[in-house]
Write a structure and sequence with these properties.
Strand content of chain A: 5-15%
Oligomer: homodimer
Largest sheet of chain A: 5 strands, parallel
Radius of gyration of chain A: 26 Å
Distance between the termini of chain A: 78 Å
Structural class of chain A: alpha/beta
Strand order of the largest sheet of chain A: 2-1-3-4-5
CATH topology of the largest domain in chain A: Rossmann fold
CATH class of the largest domain in chain A: Alpha Beta
Number of domains of chain A: 2
CATH superfamily of the largest domain in chain A: Glucose-6-phosphate isomerase like protein, domain 1
Number of helices of chain A: 14
Number of strands of chain A: 7
Chain lengths: 282, 282
DNA sequence: GGAAAAATGGAATAAAAATTCTAAAGATAT
DNA sequence: ATATCTTTAGAATTTTTATTCCATTTTTCC
């Protein structure tokens, strides 16, 4: 009874930690080759995650079929299923919560409860912030600040979805005593609003997919006139990148059709304060 | 000569960083689908590491054969070879992900300050999000949605620091097909902009300490004319509370003199989507 | 505006990998 | 000691996955 391959206490685990626990608990009751595999798997988890049945079998000193038996003895469909556990673990380390959010969304059925709606957006925001910590390089960030600090006036460019970020920058820079002009493109006067900028100024341009043409065009125009351009965008393939002297990457997570702006705001605030501090030093 | 698929300067890279650099340098000379794939690969590296040709192709919106062409155009034997690069990166990253950050922070001297600035704002944002989960009660949130969903037109009120939130709401509501008007108070025309509102409409007012008088005044005026008011504010003592039919509490954390807006944004997005969904039900 | 070259989509094919099956070896219990 | 049950090795098979090829479309250059 207690030796059943599947009892209540050791149901097939769906995450690495559970699997680890299960393997350890079965250590003494496993047959030779399977025990050997268990030991190998726990000490070379990345190899199990990436390897092929044949490759792992050779390194572990067993037959390929043993891997399949091993996986099945734990309750998985086959080796491929077991491998998923090891892969998921690596994924988590480098979080792409996309899937987690998807699960959250699906679980609510068609009737999305309002509370989970709020949860979802809060999660997306938190995820974005976490990602930003990795994607923004301190050196680039410093260079961006350097560029902005040297500018006489900072021209702020951001349309549609990211307009709020640009608008906030206008507020923050103003508070900090840094001269900044928000190009709000009112009455289609964008080009004229930017017309007074010179090489001694700088442009802070913000744009995410789908890139608003106005922002890209104005940034390109500024670059052509040798005005330093600092860009905040979401991919190296953004049209802003070609115009920018320095660019910072922010990939915001989305929930439903809407993307967070949290990381962009945090970055914008840090840029503003950093710029003001740098100026004080000069 | 310079257009050779393999010149001295862009030899096939054997690590992720090199690959990234190569892709960026070729950004402008790549054909459409390959560029699309390059962008996808850089923004979903884990998927490239773990996925199959067919799976990745589908997510990236290209044909499987394009993946192979892509890999070969970079000088690899085939997709499998390219995939090795992405896998190697995950392996390396795995052990010292936290450590790398620490080392980076300690070693870089002058970049330390700016990096910690960014950390600080990101932290403040994360804290705000955490707090909001507790401070916003689901029932209140539902009532707010109910009120907004019944409105014919939603008037958005937010000045100074929170203007970006109101501006974003205008964008989101527009996208969702909900009629909304942003009271931007341009040329001091706020009272006139709000003049057309009736009891069948609603006002969404946002204000935090120090409460901007305009917002409080306009919200009070609206309440006097029996226009339903939903408020997002930071305390029970806010002047908005007396005018509001429903109010939601959001206490943003600050870093230095600047307060986060992340929680407000998440709440605003959730309100917008919730309202649109509620309307669809009616 | 038309010829040549490059890029693309999609099916066909080849390669690789996982899984299954069976005979043989090894335990276990009576 | 031997009959039975479990475990294992290795080859055979099936399934999955990557790659190739070619007709069609798109771009480029004259």
């Amino acid at each position: 009874m207690g030796a059943d391959s599947e009892s209540i206490t050791d149901a097939t685990p769906e995450d690495y930690e559970g699997l680890r626990t299960l393997l350890l608990s079965r250590r003494d009751t496993m047959p030779k080759r399977l025990k050997q595999l268990a030991a190998f798997a726990l000490s070379h988890p990345e190899e199990v995650a990436f390897g092929t049945v044949a490759g792992i079998a050779e390194h572990a000193g067993v037959q390929p079929s043993t891997l399949v038996r091993f996986a099945k003895s734990l309750g998985y469909d086959g080796f491929s299923h077991l491998q998923q556990i090891f892969r998921a673990r690596l994924r988590e380390r480098f979080p792409d919560y996309r899937e987690r959010l998807r699960v959250l969304r699906d679980s609510e059925g068609s009737h999305v409860q309002s509370a989970s709606l709020l949860e979802g957006f809060a999660d997306a925001a938190a995820v974005s912030l976490g990602r930003m910590r990795e994607s923004v390089r301190p050196e680039e960030f410093s260079r961006a600040i350097e560029t902005l600090a040297k500018a006489d006036t900072i021209y702020l460019l951001g349309a549609r979805r990211v307009f709020p970020v640009a608008a906030y920058c206008a507020y923050a820079f103003g508070k900090l005593g840094v001269r900044a002009i928000l190009i709000d493109h009112i009455a289609q006067l964008g080009p004229e609003q930017l017309g007074t900028a010179t090489e001694r100024d700088a442009v802070l341009a913000i744009s995410f997919t789908p890139y608003s043409p106005v922002t890209a065009d104005l940034a390109a125009a500024a670059a052509r006139r040798d005005i330093p351009v600092v860009a905040i965008t979401d991919s190296a393939f953004s049209p802003l990148v070609t115009s920018a002297d320095v660019w910072l990457e922010v990939a915001e997570a989305d929930f439903g059709a809407f993307r967070s702006l949290s990381a962009s705001f945090a970055l914008a605030m840090a840029l503003a304060v950093g710029t003001a501090e740098r100026r004080a030093e000069i």
